[in-house]
Design a protein that fits this description.
The structure is a homodimer. By secondary structure, chain A is of the alpha/beta class. Chain A is about 40% helix and about 20% strand. The first copy, chain A, contains 15 helices and 16 strands. In chain A, the strands form four sheets. Chain A has an eight-stranded parallel beta sheet with strand order 4-14-13-12-11-10-6-5. The first copy, chain A, has a three-stranded antiparallel beta sheet with strand order 1-2-3. In chain A, strand 10 (about 140), helix 7 (about 155-175) and strand 11 (about 180-185) form a beta-alpha-beta unit. The longest helix of chain A is centred in the C-terminal third of the chain and has 27 residues, at about 325-350. The two termini of chain A are about 30 Å apart. In chain A, about 60% of the residues are buried. The interface between A and B is large, with 44 and 44 residues.
């Protein structure tokens, strides 16, 4: 199981420690997305170099390939992937909707055809927990119903209701000793979210997540909802905002009391040639970098910047479609996200979060990009 | 410039040190292929971890992209790529024939259309040297004419003649201070090879290479020719067998007195899921590894094996087309090749090469694979 202790507060923002059998995770924390058991382009040693203590892996993908029995036979995801930190697995529901084919949802679960070989599978709450139990993650996510952004209220209400029923089934089916997080739905309807949060808080979940954000709704609507809802999620449990977001999203959400995040933005954008820097985002393919010898960010101590790789070289590697480009930009962007949440932690400890966030958001203003909020939450690579 | 000193001999085999302004390279040495300025999937720090002192990069590719002026403006390939060892650049002639389109060779050089954008270019001996001068490699290769395996004698003779004339033009056009290697052609015609070797030895090349091997000829024909030709290449200069080969090829060729090798086999095969081990080659996609927790080679200290990644996990990564699979297998295979030549060096120093080679070849017998000798010498990725 896990334990969670809040160490300091500054306004609604808080910092703490999530204790797992695979190490302590200082919060707020950002989890890199290791969909198929690896962050694309990195290995477990890179994760240690980056100081990553918590990563998220994908139940849908690992269920289909290599299969939970293969992972279990190797001793679970930790032994299998050699990642030395703690691991969250999502439930797979999101991918069963977004990636699979001929999906049909019912009270029983999500029936779908595998995008790999077309075989028909049923992802029920019980199956989601069985698979996650075999994967052996530290934290399993309940199966939930995640409506698209802008769904009408009856759809949101139905999603909340079914998610609650599935929450109970998931808890009943959970592997003993594995922590389970409940997922609050309700779109951008704060009232619905609060009701759902209260119902889930009544169940013995180890943490509470906010799902169904960054699924197509306008970004300001998400933040307006978070401001009302996040501070009222049970304060004793870790609060996890799923699939979010940009650096600015993190700064704002931490200010509302969120502790945990996962998002493909730093890694997916790295593969597309975008680097996060204190001076703004940098599109490495831009011709202005053709002869630029500077590293991505002169002040950055990540392996790519410290290694002295210049923008000119990184641009060349990216245009030449070399894996090394994806690798180096991924190392850089994950370092950026890790440093951002570490700074936020420091600001909470200093009792100074609001001032820090204001200053940081002014720097990050350019960050808001519709593109970031248009894609799927997960690496969609089949 | 470079210096070369033979330190010990055992039969025709020898070991020595190639001294460059970018460090000393113990020979025999195997150069990883970093076609576009990076070994695919690795970064410069990985090269240091592997102990790579010498790598080969590709003039044709770097000429077309990012262009020699871009590289020169960054201070040459060493500064550009951050690879801390010595660098050989090939002349680009091989790729102008194998990769480019609408190629037309004449005494002036090789005219071709870029495979990237179709622009028409002339790779003359002077241009090959100008480009390599701008790239700033430690060792530039002369432009040569490389007939396919099994070419009739008149074609071989014409290739030798033109290569000799181009040798003189290359030396005349070389950048002061950059070492240049001549390339001996002549197919599997030992007499022609010996004549050509003698003529090139009369020119002030810093080293002599054997080109035009592993271009489609039967593998035993190559070794028969090497046995006659390699020992009679000027003993004072480093001898470089281009584009070769399998581990067994290296063991045999070192026995004939070859000092330097480059080949895509360890890296290309890694990307295709093949690992070299003391127990033979291992095709990681094989179903027998589905549940195998063992590393690629239990006795291997490479980052992939030492990191504890099991075959089951590596198979999963490979089948899921994760870059990490290519990266980990590449680290392993390059370590295998590096360890093989280091062992060979030890055997020469021990005065025991023939016995060592016999024992090693018995282990490596399974290695001979027609497939290895069918492909191009270079990473063909455009």
């Amino acid at each position: 199981m896990i334990e969670f202790r809040v160490q300091a507060r500054s306004g609604e923002a808080r910092c703490g420690v999530l204790t797992t059998t695979h190490g302590d995770v200082p919060t707020p924390a950002f989890m890199p997305v290791a969909t198929q058991g690896t962050v694309k382009g990195l290995d477990a040693a890179d994760m240690t170099t980056l100081g990553v203590r918590l990563a998220i892996m994908n139940t849908y993908h690992l269920w289909l390939r290599p299969g939970p029995d293969v992972v279990a036979a190797q001793g679970g995801l930790h032994a299998f992937t050699r990642f030395p930190g703690a691991i969250v697995t999502d439930s797979g529901g999101f991918q069963a909707f977004s990636l699979a084919e001929r999906t049909r949802a019912s009270e029983a679960g999500v029936e779908f055809a595998s995008h790999l070989d077309g075989r028909r599978l049923l992802l029920s709450p019980e199956e989601a927990m069985r698979v996650q139990g075999l994967l052996g993650s530290d934290i399993a996510m309940q199966l939930d119903v995640c409506p698209p952004g802008g769904a009408p209220r009856p759809v949101l209400v139905a999603a909340v209701e079914r998610t609650t029923r599935w929450a109970e089934r998931c808890l009943a089916a959970a592997k003993p000793g594995q922590a389970v997080f409940g997922i609050v739905q309700g779109g951008t309807d704060a009232e619905l979210r609060l009701e759902h949060a209260e119902r889930l808080a009544g169940l013995p979940f180890a943490g509470l997540a906010l799902g169904g954000f960054s699924v197509g709704e306008p970004n300001p609507d998400m933040h307006r909802t978070l401001e009302v809802v996040a501070p009222r999620l049970d304060a004793a449990r870790p609060r996890y905002l799923m699939g979010v977001g940009t650096p600015a999203d993190l700064v704002r959400a931490i200010g509302c009391g969120v502790d945990l995040f996962d998002c493909v933005i730093p890694t997916r954008n790295a593969r597309n040639g975008q680097a996060f820097t204190r001076q703004g985002r940098l599109a490495i393919r831009n011709a202005r970098y053709k002869d630029d010898p500077a590293p991505l960010d002169a002040a950055c101590p990540c392996p790519a910047c410290r290694g002295g790789y210049g923008r000119s070289y990184l641009r060349h590697l990216h245009l030449a479609r070399e894996m090394s480009a994806a690798r180096l930009l991924t190392l850089h962007n994950l370092h950026f996200y890790g440093a951002l949440v570490a700074e936020a932690r420091g600001a909470v400890q200093a009792g100074d979060y609001a001032a820090w966030a204001r200053a940081r958001l002014a720097e990050l203003e350019f960050e808001a990009s519709d593109e970031d909020h248009a894609g799927p939450q997960e690496d969609a690579t089949p």
